[in-house]
């Protein structure tokens, strides 16, 4: 069984990007941890990051042909992208929305997510552990 771990815009800069908000782990650190956790739980985790909305949509479309589910941090697109929301509802596999920061403790524009209503679940505010909780939850839902 395979799972897509998908990261949106600016998350390639993790480690140096506002570490007081997002922590000091790099994206590579997080990916490696999630690949290892997946292996422990019997699931292959494939990681992808893009700063481009269309590339993220393509990745979601493609995932429905090979992945059992997706753990997705849509970054800033969370709050703006109807097209990404439509892509999530178009694919049948479960998608878990994750955020490093607690979006509800931040600016008001981050309180609204266009993704949440079409995602199976959501984890926000646990730093890199949001990914771990999201991955564990997804694997549980899938029943792997
Ligand atoms: C984020 C929260 C978003 O509001 C922000 O635009 C990001 C990162 C998070 O992981 O906390 O890029 O998704």
Describe this structure in words.
With 144 residues, this protein is of the alpha/beta class. It has a single domain (2-142), classed as Dehydroquinase, class II (Rossmann fold), CATH 3.40.50. Helix content is 36%, strand content 18%. The protein has a five-stranded parallel beta sheet with strand order 2-1-3-4-5, sandwiched between helices. α3 (53-63) runs parallel beside α4. The chain is globular and about 35 Å long. The N and C termini lie close together (7 Å). 1,3,4-trihydroxy-5-OXO-cyclohexanecarboxylic acid binds next to loops. 1,3,4-trihydroxy-5-OXO-cyclohexanecarboxylic acid binds at residues 10, 73, 75-76, 78, 99-101, 103, 110.
| Ends apart, CA distance between termini | 7 Å
User: Mind telling me the C-alpha Rg?
Assistant: 14 Å
Per CATH, the superfamily is Dehydroquinase, class II
- Structural shape: globular
β-strand number? 5
Tell me which ligands are bound: 1,3,4-trihydroxy-5-OXO-cyclohexanecarboxylic acid
What average pLDDT do the residues reach?
A: 97
Low-pLDDT regions: none
CATH architecture: 3-Layer(aba) Sandwich
Order of helices and strands: EHHEHEHEEH
Number of helices: 5
Tally of individual domains = 1
Short description, anyone?
This protein is an alpha/beta fold. The protein has helices spanning about 20, 25-40, 55-65, 80-90, 130-140; strands at about 1-5, 45-50, 70-75, 95-100, 120-125.
Supply the key terms.
144 residues, alpha/beta, 5-stranded parallel sheet, Rossmann fold, binds 1,3,4-trihydroxy-5-OXO-cyclohexanecarboxylic acid, globular
């Amino acid at each position: 069984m395979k799972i897509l771990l998908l990261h949106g815009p600016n998350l390639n800069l993790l480690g140096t990007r506002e570490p007081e908000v997002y922590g000091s782990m790099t994206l590579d650190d997080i990916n490696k941890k999630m690949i290892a956790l997946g292996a422990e739980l019997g699931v292959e985790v494939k990681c992808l990051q893009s700063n481009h909305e269309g590339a993220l949509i393509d990745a979601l479309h493609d995932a429905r042909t090979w992945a059992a589910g997706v753990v997705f941090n849509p970054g800033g697109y969370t709050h703006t992208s109807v097209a990404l929301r439509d892509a999530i509802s178009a694919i049948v596999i479960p998608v878990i929305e994750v955020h490093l920061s607690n979006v509800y403790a931040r600016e008001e524009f981050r309180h609204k997510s266009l993704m949440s209503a079409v995602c199976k679940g959501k984890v926000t505010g646990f730093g890199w552990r949001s990914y771990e909780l999201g991955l564990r939850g997804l694997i549980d839902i899938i029943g792997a």
